[in-house]
Amino acid sequence: MHLVAASEEQMVQRDALTYSEWGKFLSLEEYAAREKRLRAHPWSRSAMRTWLLCGEDGAVLASCETFRTPSFLRIPGGSLVPGDSFAIASVFTEERLRGQGYATRLMDLLAAELERQPRAHAALLFSDVGPRLYARSGYQELPAWDWHLSPTPGDPAGPVDSLLREDELATALAHLRHPEVPFFFWPTPAQLDWHLERGRIYAGHLGCSRPTSAGARAGTSTILWGLVGRSPELTVLMLDARSASETWALLEAARHEASRCGLSRVVLWEEPSHATFLELLKGGGITRVARNGSLPMVRPLRPGLPPITPLLPAPRGLWV
Ligand SMILES: CC(C)(COP(=O)(O)OP(=O)(O)OC[C@H]1O[C@@H](n2cnc3c(N)ncnc32)[C@H](O)[C@@H]1OP(=O)(O)O)[C@@H](O)C(=O)NCCC(=O)NCCS
Question: Quick one: which of 128, 136, 147, 184 could link to 293 by a disulfide (CB 3.0–4.6 Å)?
């Protein structure tokens, strides 16, 4: 068995097979069009590859995608060394081929391939099938808690200093504080826009309006959000929360924006840096729940990377 990077034609062939798994709400044609459109997005064009596990006869046994994602290593003295990490998505084995170790083999060969990349730091994935399959290939799970906030009517601009437009995403992202940990992943503006592109595709199917804002600022804190998929939710992509009161203001704005767009709730992935602020806001339509699916898991791709600990943040903006 060996690993190959898929051609455009092979990607289209995989779309027809993965439709049954990831095509919910879409016809086969709409799913194929979605995949084509997402692959044409600037982030995919610069950072995405589709990988095939092939048998000796060339038959495809399993597949997945990787998205190159920036990451940073803090060296003694505090400066940051940039590198490449790889977010893995859409791990797939056709039903008739399952249970024969192909996905495991794919993950092992892929890790060996990624380890050879010159600036490689780590591989990251969001498992929908629990930790066991990926733990076999060296991935360690991170905590996965979500905060659900009910929408509340009101002017989203009311509680905050300013709302952010989509064309301000890059500036706002550059303004966010890096996590105070020895190693972390950090998305690019194009990467965040790729999430919004998914929302642009699904908005018509969901029958809701897309938010006119892409986030908000309150004091020195910033939140970035969007409609990002097939759930009618306002999803927080990044949150740099520096105080409890600013966190409250940003989330109130998010709840108002969700209400304005007819969305069912605000969803925020918990990170160690803002968990304590969120605890203070609990109640009154704000709940903490164990995440269903999308379990973050990380595998170092080079020796000397600091240990993967629960303190490593995995914001929703990194999801693929
Ligand atoms: C998950 C998937 C890729 C596994 O492919 P595979 O080639 O059968 O994988 P392997 O033979 O290497 O390993 C099979 C393991 O995956 C586990 N697995 C498969 N589907 C699972 C699920 N929905 N939940 C939990 N475990 C699951 C099997 O129980 C088995 O575990 P075991 O060997 O410890 O008993 C395949 O079932 C698939 O394509 N599923 C649909 C798409 C999907 O869910 N992809 C994963 C997204 S994170």
Answer: 128
Nearest CA, atom 25, ligand 1: 129
Specify the CATH superfamily of domain 2-141+293-307+314-318. Answer: Gcn5-related N-acetyltransferase (GNAT) (3.40.630.30)
Distance CA 18, CA 22 (A): 6
pTM over 0.90: yes
**Per-residue pLDDT reduced to its tens digit, 262-318:** 999 999 999 999 999 999 999 999 999 999 999 999 999 999 899 999 999 999 999
Sheet holding 162-164, edge to edge: 162-164, 215-218, 221-226, 233-240, 265-269, 145-149, 286-290
90 lines ligand 1 (CB under 6 A): no
Q: 105: CA distance to ligand 1 center in Å?
A: 12
Q: What is the pLDDT of residues 243-268, one digit of tens each?
A: 999 999 999 999 999 999 999 999 99
